[in-house]
Each structure stands twice: as structure tokens, then as C-alpha cells.
Amino acid sequence: MKTIINPDPKTFKSLLSRPQNSEREMEKVVAEIFQEVKKKGDAAVRSYTALFDGVQLETIQVSKEILETATVPKKLQSAIQIAKQNIEAFHRAQNTAPIKVETMPGVQCWQEKKPIEKVGLYIPGGTAPLFSSILMLAIPAQIAGCSEIVLCTPPNSEGEINPAILYCARVCGITKVFKVGGIQAIAAMTYGTESIPAVYKLFGPGNQYVTAAKQYATRQGVAIDMPAGPSELLVCADDSANASFIASDMLSQAEHGADSQVILVTTSQTLSAEVQTEIDLQLNALARKSIAEQALENSKTIIVDSKEEAVQIINFYAPEHLILVSEDEPYYLSKIVNAGSVFLGNYTPESAGDYASGTNHTLPTNGYAKQYSGVTLDSFMKTMSFQKISKQGLEKLGETIEIMAAAEGLFAHKNAVSLRLKSQNDE
Amino acid sequence: MKTIINPDPKTFKSLLSRPQNSEREMEKVVAEIFQEVKKKGDAAVRSYTALFDGVQLETIQVSKEILETATVPKKLQSAIQIAKQNIEAFHRAQNTAPIKVETMPGVQCWQEKKPIEKVGLYIPGGTAPLFSSILMLAIPAQIAGCSEIVLCTPPNSEGEINPAILYCARVCGITKVFKVGGIQAIAAMTYGTESIPAVYKLFGPGNQYVTAAKQYATRQGVAIDMPAGPSELLVCADDSANASFIASDMLSQAEHGADSQVILVTTSQTLSAEVQTEIDLQLNALARKSIAEQALENSKTIIVDSKEEAVQIINFYAPEHLILVSEDEPYYLSKIVNAGSVFLGNYTPESAGDYASGTNHTLPTNGYAKQYSGVTLDSFMKTMSFQKISKQGLEKLGETIEIMAAAEGLFAHKNAVSLRLKSQNDE
Questions:
Q1: The model's pTM
Q2: 3 state DSSP class of B283
Q3: What is the pLDDT of residue A411?
Q4: Which residues from B are below 8 Å from A90, CB to CB?
Q5: Can you tell me the ipTM of this complex?
Q6: Is the dihedral of CA A294, A128, A377, B97 positive or negative?
Q7: Minimal CB count within 10 Å: which of A65, B245, B395, B410?
Q8: What count of other Cβ atoms lies within 10 Å of the Cβ of residue A270?
């Protein structure tokens, strides 16, 4: 980890640059797989699964029996249950009432949220089965009231899905689980195949191929949760922070992947040195040590003189995860505008939000916290607006519309009002 | 207009297909202009403005003096004022309180909305100056609290901007107006130039070039309001509807552009015939008759036997605008899930929402109402989540996190909790 002291804001851009992803180079292969899946449906999905996952599948959908009997150890069942309750409580609270305003007498305007009917969830496979992402996506989808929830996840070389993934899917009420991964999964949910339904919006994490495929899907008329990049954490801490805790959080971010990034911003030279010592100490005990080591090469400690500078760096970087341990927490809370999820104080590790505090762990990376929200209940809904104008209301509002329409040169727009006003006068 | 009676749902896809746009073919020219603007900044903007708008600009920004003295006739001023008040009232009501939940004792989770700091508004030029779009975008941007609002709109061949556009910008408190249109405007707001600030999110309507440019901008890290397509209206009406009013609404949609689309779905053969007669009658009086006539060629009347079938068609088509005039309004309101903005009853013309009822006229076209919201206050904000866990809270939640992290093979995630729990026990 490099240490930088009091950087000039002019250097922020290069100093805080993120590991590059090469999404654009993959576009050709993505376009080809999408084309094949669109044309050949299940047959294409099967052949890509044979090619990439090394398994020839008979049926793509996980059978009802397998889904209903999948299980995990009792202790994990209880843990999943507690996480589920917390996530449900937080996302249910996001259900807001319709907004209704009579903007003028007789002019009623309102707004209602409706579920997106068909959504697709992608869950990566690989060595670590990310079953927690199912909770983060399926729970709000269910609360929103999405009527069709499709889950795709790649099979192992035996053609099987990790039981923790199946168990979580079942406890979240998902009945349609498909053994498909990668670009072909995203393509299948975009166009639909004989087995796999087409959806209106795609959610979930994935490697660079999945990310490129989701980006491509947006140009085929499907929405996505957000553009994705490697995971990242910025820790902002002063002398009130426990260096050992901070180090453990930085390592928990670093173990995600070699392209993860960790930034420590601190007003304390002492803390900076202590954290470095603790990282070296804790690193050796880690199962994923070599991954974490690579990630730490993208990582930096930035020592600043003041809180003001710290805030400037945070808002510039717009971290996915922000851990904030400061004696002056209120100052930071009043100034920070760009961050995905914020973890406050010595006893709030990032892993709490990753799994079980109740907040969503699907968050904007790559600086996108400047303009994108993480996944919330709203991600599974869309807003419709309504208006109902009475005769009397149109009498009041009509002339305004007529004048503006005429000024924009849209006389049929004007006429739609004039006709109605005239008919009222005739009555 | 073609008339179809009781179509088979299997034919919906072709029956309800929209006029194609050829966005993808423009990608080469978009990429080239973006590249030039990125490299050469203002110089590139100036040279494209000379090429496309036929005017050599000295300064790109509209001067303070011009902006502050721009005016429109008194009557239009009052109309704009009324529209502004209604739009403000409806969008201010969308400001919701932060959501806070203690998911477990000592585990506080909350969610706050923060303004997107830098936003860019695009307003097309052309024969009809769409000043109403400024109200629809600048008002929610101001209510959200966006700190930098940039407006780009193309100049005429004299290098000037229509005074109605400048007047609306001023009354909405916009101080940065730039005389730039088309692809080069979107590129300038994406990368920033010497004159034009880079923004985080782009809003506003535009022709196919602007649409393609906005799509391209999303791959450069900038968000957009929504993907766009030609404007469209579906009218669902029964015998309680006034045929003359319906015809006037259909024509007001049709005059937007030759690629606009209008669909009438009705349970009444009588109404269908009457509307057709009224359209023929009213069409002749229109200034934009030839545009409307072309749009009507993309348009259809669909006669159905039942409300159930009508709802099926509406939800399949997912219209940008839906006018609903029915004796059984509650039935439709309970069943419709896919529509941008809904206009209810005989006295609610679409033009009311286009200008002045208070709802936003920036709406999802092209079937995107299935998964995208129109512009709301939320479009100018993003959601941040927060959590703060006490020592006692972590004692309760810690084991859950440890078990789940271990099951996902992420032992540094587990360790971030274990360390903290252990330190508590040590105290």
C-alpha cells in the first residue's frame, strides 16, 4: 500500500483512479452469444454451458424436487433466517404511500409505484457461492410484488448448483431457478428461450463478462440494476478508530478479488502506521491471502491535515462502501454526499452490511455513487403518474395550456383544450 | 388508421410494434464526435456548431445580460408561472423523509436521499422551442438541490436562442446556458470542455442523434434519465367517451412527429367510427397536418369485446401516455401496471400533463414503462444507506455474519466481526 500525504486536489483524478476493466473489448463475444441465444434459444444455452461450464445439461431448470429438498446446516439456516428478517424489515420500511396533490382546484395529480412484473436475478457461481446476494435481490423483489422472478446461476462440472444457493432461493419464494451462467444467462433472460422467461430488468453481480453482457442487454430494451465495477472500500478514520478493526475491514474488502480497491483516508499519522502493521499481521492468517495481497497493490493510504480535505476526497472518490470512524461523526454526515453505503463507528464492520444488518449490499461501484443509488425496494418498482381534471378544473387551467401550446407551435395540443372548453360553454 | 377487431394475444407483438429507430447505425458518427470533443474541447464544439447549425460562435455560453433580459409576452409569462407553480407543488410533495429502522436492538439502518451534484439538461431547438421541457427538468433539479445545473440547447443560424427558452431557464434559476446542440452538446456535458462543465447525469428529449449520444454517454460513466423513443399515446375508451375530444387528443399526439404513434383501444364500435370521422374533420384545420397524417399511418384502432382484453393490450403495449375514459374507471385503475402517465376522464387531455397539470412530461416511451419511471424528483437524487451498530448490537448480530461469511468462503469478512467480538470479551 502506498502512502500519500496531503495530496493536491488536482492530483485526485490520477491518485484515486480505479483498476481498469476492459468491458469494451468483450463486446464482440457478447454480441455473438446474444445473437446465438436469440436465434437458437435453449440449444444455444446448452452448447455454451457445455463450452464454458464443461457440463452437458439435459434440463436447464432446477427441478421442483431438487429445489424443495436443498438444505444447509442448521446453524446456517438460522443465520440466513436472521439476515432475512433484518433485510425484510429495512426494505419493507421503504414502501412509501402514493403521493397525491390537488395542484389547483379540480386538478388532481398523483403518483403510484407498481412492481416491475418480470425480473431476472443473476448469481455467480465459482468457489464461493454468493447466496447472500439472493437475499439482497429476492427479498425486495418479493416485497415489491414482482410477479415473475427468474434466477440464473452457473452449474458446476457435475451440472449441480450449490445447495446454499438453492436453499436461499427457496426460503425467498423463488420457484424458477436455471442452471445457466455468464453471458448466455444474461442473453437468455433478455430474449427468453423455450425454458427461460424473458424479463424486463436484470439484477445481480458478476464477473467482467456478465457486466459486459448486462450493459449489452440495456441496448436490447432490458433495464439493469446499475453498471458494475470491482468492489471497493474507503475508510475514513481518526485517532478514535481501532487500528486492528480498520485493518480487518480493509482486508475483508481486499479478499473479494485482485481488482478490489481499498483507500484509507486519515488525519492521523499514528493510525496510518498502526493500520499498516495490523494489515501485515492479519494478512498471513488469511485463506485468500494472495488475492488480498494483489488487491492491496491497488490500494492507498492518504494522510490529510483536516476533515475538510478528507470530505473532499470522499466525495471525489464516491466509494461503494464508506467506513467512517471519527470523533466528529456529525461533521462528516453533514458533508458526505457521494457514497453507496456508510458504516459508522468502531463496531460496524462492512461485513455487517454485506450480510445481515438489513441494508442492501448491491451498491454502485466505480464512482457511480455520484449518480446511482444502490439496490432498494424502488429498484424493483417503477413510478406511474396520474391526473384527473374536472370540468371546473379545466376551466381554470385550460387557458394556461392553450397559451403554452400555441407558443410551442403545437396547435393540436391547444385544440384538445379549446374543444373541451368550448363544449362546456355550449352546455 | 387501420382497424383491428379482437386480436389474438399471439399477434400483439407485431400488431403493437413501434416505428423503428436506427440508433445503432449512428454509433460511428457519435463515437467520432465524442472523441473530438474529448480531445479538443470548445474548439471541437465550435466547429460542429458551425457544421450542423451553420453558425460560427464567439462565445458558447449565453451571456448574463442576454439571459437576464430575455422575455416573452405577458400572457405567456403568466401561463408559465401557473404551470411552474403546479409542477413545483407536485414535485415538492415527492420529497420523502429519510427511512430509519432499528432492525435489531443496537442495529440502526437508514436511508437518505442526496441530490446528484451536477446535472445536464438538453433542450432541442428547431421550429418549436420546447421551453416546457425546461420547467419539467429544472424545477425538480432545483427542488432536489442539485448544485450545478447546466443547460445546452442549439442556436439558430444567427447564433441565438429562442427567448422563451432563456426566459424559462431564468425563472427556474438556471445560470449556465450554452448554445450547443446535438451530439456535440451531449459529448461536452459528458467530458466537460473549457466552457461547459462535465455532469454526472443527463436529462432531456432530443432527436435520434441526441438519443444515440445519450446512450453512448452511459458507456462513458454518465447516467441518463431514460432511454428514449418516439412519443406515443394509447387511448382506452368506451361509450362514455366524447369522440370529438378523443380525436383531438389523438391528433395532438400525432402532430409531435411523423414517427409518433397513436393507438385507440375501445369496446365500442360506435365510438371507433365516430372518432375516425372526427379525426378526418379536425385534421384539415391543423397547422402540422402533414406530420399528423404521417403519424396516423403508424396508428391503429383496436376493437375488443371486453375490458379484460383492453387491459391486456394496455399492459402489453406499456404506453408513454394513456388516456382512459371509461364508465368503469376503478376496474382499469386496479389492473393497469404498465403506463407512463395516465389521463382520466373526458376533461383530462394529454396536453394538460404536457404543460401544466403538475405531473412530469418526461416519460418512458417504446414500452419502457414496463421497467422505467418517468422523471420524478427521485431522478435528480440518489439514495445512500447508513448503518450504525453498537457493541451490544454486534454481540447480537455478530455470529450471524460470521456463519454466513464462512459459508461463502470469505474468512476476512468473518474475521472483521470475530476480532471485534473478541475485543469486547477482553474488556
A1: 0.96
A2: helix
A3: 94
A4: 101, 103, 109, 111
A5: 0.95
A6: negative
A7: A65
A8: 11
